[in-house]
Amino acid sequence: MSRYAYVNGRFVRHGQAAVHIEDRGYQLADGVYEVWAVFDGKLADADGHFTRLWRSLDELRIAHPMGRAALTLVLGEAIRRNKVREGLVYLQVSRGVARRDHAFPDPPVPPAVVITAKSVDRAAAEAKAAKGAGVVTVPETRWSRCDIKSIGLLPNALAKQAARERGAVEAWFVDELGLVTEGASSNAWIVDADGVLRTRDTQANILRGVTRTTLMQVIGEAGLPVSERPFTVAEAKAAKEAFITGAGSLVLPIVSVDGAPVGDGVPGPRATRLRRLYIEKARATAI
Ligand code: PLP
Q1: Is the same domain home to 111 and 131?
Q2: Confidence (pTM)
Q3: Is the C-beta atom of 182 inside 6 A of ligand 1?
Q4: What is the average per-residue pLDDT within 218-247?
């Protein structure tokens, strides 16, 4: 099937889509991105992702490439042209194209926008979730502004590769105090020995996951005990359950940490239920 990408104002064939060699995203990782899950051809958790996108842009003083209404239309068109019913839509905004210089272009140039959409096999994802997945731990090596969804993802890419080489799907960053910060592309959770859901607070140097925020609502509605407190690797290994959240993984049960089984070494009832409840809510509220 032909795929299409949106590049700076027009849709082009995915295979021919290209950006300028002096795009600051390409040369300096001077840009931000967002990823929405797509359910039934619609954007999941739309508001949360738009709000975080504007914030990431504002924190880096990159101009908004278009307003929300226009962006919603273009994202919808990317989904439609790529015939995505279930999948992901990716948006990247860089500071634009300018002669290479670390400081911002003066006068400013228009931000550069790329959008792609791809299908996900939900049945295969469900089968993967039913089996659960492993994580490995790696030292936290990222900058101190992980709240910005920057395209500068080299530590995340290295961590993910380390996970793959060790047979795991995700890597958890661990700070100098031995506390898990988050995953390379997800937020990290456990059900601790007392049966309390635990995830790191968003004052810490982590990305404020949109899936995490929606899941907090789901947890509140379900009346489950939850605490926004960090946990150590030892606590994760001794936990009843563990899981990760993100637009790609949704809510994915974690069954091992550095090769040690979590709980019974199979997806736990809490994570399994929360995955179902999250997907129901995200599907029902997608726009
Ligand atoms: N943390 C990191 C580092 C991420 O890259 C992501 C998603 O890509 C997340 C957390 C989860 O965020 P969200 O739930 O908004 O997808």
Answers
A1: no
A2: 0.98
A3: yes
A4: 98
